[in-house]
Amino acid sequence: MPVRPPLLHHHDGTPFRDLNHNGTMEPYEDPRLPVEDRVADLLARMTLEEKAGLMCHGRMLPPADGTPPADGALSADGASGAPGGPGGGPGTGTPSTLPTDAEHIAARHINHFALMAVPPPAAMARWNNHVQDLAAATRLGIPVTLSSDPRHGFTANPATAHSGEGFSAGPEPIGLAATDDPGLVREFAAATAAELRAVGIRLALHPMADLATEPRWARISGTFGEDADRAGRMLDAYIRGMQGDRLDGTSVACMVKHFPGHGPQALGEDAHFAAGRAQAFPGRNLAHHLRPFEAAFAAGAAQVMPCYAIPSGTGLAEVGAGYNRDVVTGLLRERYGFDGVVCTDFNALTGMEIPGLATLPARAWGVEHLSVPERLVTMLDAGVDQLGGETCPELIVAAVRSGAVGEERIDASVRRVLRDKFRLGLFEDPYVDPERAAPLVGTPRTRRLGRTVQRRSLVGLSGSAEPFTTARRTKPGSPADTGNPADPGNPADPGNLTDPGNLTDPGNPADPENLAVYAENIAPAALARYGRTVATPEEADVAVLRLAAPYEHREGLLERHFHSGSLEFPAEEAARLRAVCAAVPTAISVFLDRPAVLAPLTGPAGPALLIGDFGADDDLVLDAVFGGVPLEGVLPFDLPSSMRAVAESREDVPFDTAAPLWRCGHRAPAGEGAQERFAPHL
Predict the structure, then answer these.
(1) 211, 213, 216, 179: CA torsion to nearest 10
(2) 9 has which bridge partners?
(3) What is the per-residue pLDDT for 677?
(4) Where is the segment annotated Disordered (predicted)?
(5) Distance (Å, rounded) from C-alpha 185 to C-alpha 224?
């Protein structure tokens, strides 16, 4: 097993980590020196192979228990005798679905890894320390940077976001925008960062600065909505919450994406797939999509990821943004003066082989005709610094040795990458405490905060909670509702007794056993606080339904996780929902990961109460329905009236669908809150 380098002391008493194992404090090991001086010293010591490894940002799948393998080897799929991945999972022993290489760190000099899964906090902390020990045993001891897509929401998509794993859940980023409260967003982002730091994750592959101007696009839940000004405010708060006011040892660095704006996808198709290779700018509105990035740069975003797609119709080169010198050098470097790390979106260069399941092509949109070495040279000429998802430093070495790329160009990128490692304090201490990790992740305070953000993001679209609160009051029985039970997701947490997001009506005298509720997609334990479950609407006093926004099911290992296509409920489903509403007073909450067409749920045939949510626990939705808790959220995009209106709108222009049912910025009336009836803009 690797031996952790000891903490030594310089002759003047300065403590340092002896990363190159020579017993002397070299300038790059000296914590007193300016970052730029340390970077220059380390860069001068590196071989071309070591530099090339630093420019690869691979993937990693830790074992489920975080236990290092007996031989000390590292595999990029979490080997320790138990590979796994999509369809298997870490530690399951199923066939690996990610490429393995026990020498990624030691031989290939790769020391950036995006985590494809995260084991429980203590296990993840142990794994981080094992990885850092492996890095410390290399010639120069350059520490590893572990990164991750979002892990604090409700979406589970292996290519874009994750949920669970013990982290405190808030709504999706679109729900953060729905709170319209930058102070609350910054507080939640800071809590998120603290949990990530506790397990060793120091680079966030988020936030998204893209605008939700094309309603069909599958990635809208990861954005801050359609309004560029609101998105800018949210980005400022989120980045400052994650990083602080400057990048240092208390920060989680943010990689803002997908420059210069991924929202205007042609026909709403996502650029992970060939159908979404191009964007559309019929409104010539690129400048509008740059505005949220300007806010991110002003907030100090450390890194940037360009999008896969071709910015067609903008006057920029007709190649994907990661290959596009007009985008990376012209816009990002020269116009905006950005000198941080630019990392390509993942597997834009070589694609990905998933043994036994699928081969995912490179998202090399616009340069498919080029060979892989030619693509690499094009990327480097464009100005990128790291290759997302790639573990092929030999291609970079070959490009330099062939004369296609100068080593000074490689040095410029390595300098940026090293700078962030030093600023994050990784050279001083990349380790975390496994015994403290579990108590620091998912604390009562951060869970309460996450639930508060969830509650604040709920948007009242139409109707009133009055039929449901009345039904509770008029059912005879004993007072069984205690008003503030503990969070059902963390029943041992007494701190949740004060959760302001879990309020009910403490004066309600009804016995839950006497209120018959027909429910769909709601946990029975949460519903038991308010009523007993019945099997059909006809048996019920009231009905409460939680629905996903409509989408078209797609085939394919990854594409099935992307909600794309039509935003309308199929006719049969719309008729079924209206039949439930006709049978009994009904509340419907729709998870708006995209701007759904909710026309069938409006008017007299619709529900008594219609809510838009962006990821919220069942009991919080039920509190809004039964408890009279105000619906405070602000709609972060227009909700269109029809798919025809969507098809006729321009992908790059906000608020462009004709006669939307609800406008961006809609909020349920104040005053009586959920008791007051309100309606769409018909």
Answers:
(1) 60
(2) 15
(3) 52
(4) 1-33, 59-99, 442-513
(5) 11
Indicate whether this model's pTM tops 0.85: yes
> Would you place residue 501 in the very low, low, confident or very high pLDDT band (cuts 50, 70, 90)?
very low
Q: Distance (Å, rounded) from C-alpha 535 to C-alpha 518?
A: 6
Is the pLDDT assigned to residue 137 strictly greater than 70? yes
Element (H, E) at 289: helix 286-298
Token pair 């290992």: residue: 557
The whole-angstrom separation of Cα 233 and Cα 210 is 13
| Torsion sign (Cα): 283, 215, 235, 196 | negative
Peptide bond into 258 cis (omega under 30): yes
Higher-pLDDT residue of 351 and 651 is 651
Lookup: tokens for 285:
């509105």
* d(C-alpha 504, C-alpha 678), whole Å: 21
* Active-site residue identified among 227, 345, 541, 619: 345
Please enumerate in sequence order all residues whose Cβ is within 8 A of that of 409, keeping only pairs 6 or more positions apart, or say none: 380
In sequence order, the β-bridge partners of residue 544 are 519, 587
Average pLDDT over residues 196-219: 97
Residue 18: active-site member: no
Beta strands 542-548; 201-204: pairing state: unpaired
User: Which neighbouring-strand residues pair with 17?
Assistant: 7
* 3-class DSSP assignment, residue 610: strand
3-class SS letters over 547-560: EECCCECCCCCCHH
CA distance 380 to 413: 9
pLDDT at residue number 561:
85
Residue with tokens 């071709």: 310
Tokens of 515: 């209120």
Nearest one of 592, 591, 613, 588 to 601, comparing CA atoms: 588
pLDDT, residue 680, reads 59
Pull the structure tokens for residue 358: 């699928």
CA neighbor of 586 nearest in space, from 538, 627, 549: 538
Phi, psi of 147 (to 5 degrees): -125, 170
Helix ranges restricted to H, 441-486:
444-457, 466-474
**CA atoms of 398 and 350, how far apart (whole Å):** 15
* Closest listed residue to residue 19, CA positions, set 301, 622, 426: 426
> How many whole angstroms separate alpha carbon 282 and alpha carbon 603?
34
* pLDDT value at residue 75: 47
Q: How far apart are CA 176 and CA 190, in angstroms?
A: 13
Which tokens go with 460? 């009242």
Contact 317, 325 (CB under 8 A): yes
